[in-house]
Specification:
By secondary structure, the chain is α/β, with parallel strands linked by helices. It has 12 helices and 12 strands. Helix 8 crosses helix 10. The two termini are 20 Å apart.
């Protein structure tokens, strides 16, 4: 799956393809602060998190929250896939319909203009309707007009119905002498003829709307169906790919407590087997043993990497809890340096969080150059073991070069 991003508050690069990310490949996002690296990782993470929950409405909240001006997924602009915000669905048919009734709109406009010239009162009553007809004629002629005022058939329906009410009011009230023609160019009979002609045209326009609503629904349903098919495919694809977002703010205690809870839960389950039927005990204990072994194997892998030059750090399980050793002595995590915490946090996250894509934001934060020089090779090793990918954001030249040396795709901002 390929994603393309651009941000409203970040200048576009000369080559737009630099903003494309292929989620099936390891990728490094490189650039200065303020260029949108973190927001790209956040967008990818949130896309996967919301894939199965109110996907369509949530994605547009995401676009607004991250200040995205472009979000394309597999080459399709997601703003064009909205059923709720897709203005093209509405306005496309609106233009087609208005063009088809342009002759009637023009006739109605001429008659109303004649009526408005009869007296000042008529002019006041009909000025709004003349303005609205001018807007519709602009849409018919150029396909544009004022989309804020008239952007769907419901608003066109309102225009015709309010015009009909005004004309009927004129027709009913003139016979009681409420409006007089003082300019001498038209008598009462002429006024009635103008009003009757205008009502006849307006009634025709209302009848065309009945068919137009049906045609719009029919046309849009075809588009809606194709959109829903694509959205379903997209949701299924996103659901098949879990993400894990690791930021500089990710809390080491939270990660360790999560592992502790997993250990505790499996130990408790093992204890409950003493009260289960014999045929269930063997299967349950075998499953729990495999899970405990998986935890132990992950700790062994982490220690293998830590032993290669990360300051004598070691991870162990003591009394059912994760502990950290430094230079062979168990140490409180609060006494570790920020760089040491960062390394342990990165390794434990990748080892214990199940994900297809690890989104790692500025892994170099707080790390010495010595740690930075080893980090990318070790993260690639951990992810390759699991068949997972890395999308990594950095502004550190050494980290960027190591990513390129490991055949990462590059996205420079």
């Amino acid at each position: 799956m390929e994603l393309e991003f651009s941000f409203k508050d970040v200048p576009q690069d000369v080559m737009n393809e630099h903003r494309n990310i292929d989620l099936s490949k390891n990728t490094v996002i490189y650039g200065n602060n303020g260029r949108g690296k973190t927001r790209i990782l956040t967008a990818i993470d949130n896309l996967h998190k919301i894939a199965s929950i109110e996907f369509q409405s949530k994605i547009f909240n995401l676009v607004e929250e991250l200040n995205l001006s472009t979000l394309k997924i597999d080459g399709k602009d997601f703003t064009e896939l909205s059923l709720l915000k897709n203005k093209k669905l509405e306005s496309g048919y609106l233009t087609k319909y208005v063009k088809s009734i342009e002759f009637a709109l023009n006739d109605l406009y001429i008659v109303l203009r004649e009526l408005s010239g009869i007296s000042f009162v008529f002019q006041e009553l009909l000025s709004r309707h003349l303005d609205e007809l001018r807007l519709l004629l602009q849409i018919a002629e150029s396909g544009r007009g004022n989309r804020r005022q008239i952007n769907n058939l419901i608003k066109v329906d309102r225009i015709f119905r309010t015009c009909s009410l005004t004309l009927k009011k004129l027709r009913n009230d003139i016979s009681h002498g409420f409006y007089s023609t003082t300019n001498g160019f038209a008598d009462e009979r002429d006024v009635f003829l103008y009003i009757r002609e205008a009502l006849t045209i307006n009634e025709y326009l209302l009848r065309t709307l009945e068919d137009a609503h049906y045609r719009e629904l029919e046309e849009n349903n075809e588009k809606v169906k194709s959109i829903k098919v694509f959205q379903k495919e997209l949701e299924n694809s996103l659901n098949r790919n879990d993400t894990c977002y690791i930021s500089p703010d990710t809390n080491l205690d939270v990660i360790m407590n999560k592992i502790d809870e997993n250990i505790k839960k499996n130990i408790e389950k093992y204890g409950f087997t003493f009260f289960e039927k014999e045929d269930i005990v063997k299967i349950t204990r075998e499953s729990i043993t495999n899970k405990i072994k998986e935890i132990q194997d992950n700790i062994i892998i982490a220690n293998k990497l830590l032993s290669t030059g990360y300051g004598g750090l070691e991870i162990l399980i003591q009394s059912g809890r994760i502990k950290v050793k430094k230079n062979s002595e168990v140490i409180d995590c609060e006494k570790l340096s920020s760089g040491e915490k960062r390394i342990i946090k990165l390794f434990l996250s990748v080892l214990f969080e199940k994900a297809n894509i690890y989104l790692i934001d500025e892994p170099e934060v707080s790390l010495s150059l010595n740690f930075q020089s080893k980090l990318i090779n070790d993260l690639v090793y951990l992810c390759e073991r699991k068949g997972s990918r890395i999308i990594l954001a950095t502004h550190a030249p050494y980290v960027f070069k190591d990513c390129i040396a490991n055949d990462f795709e590059r996205l420079e901002l």
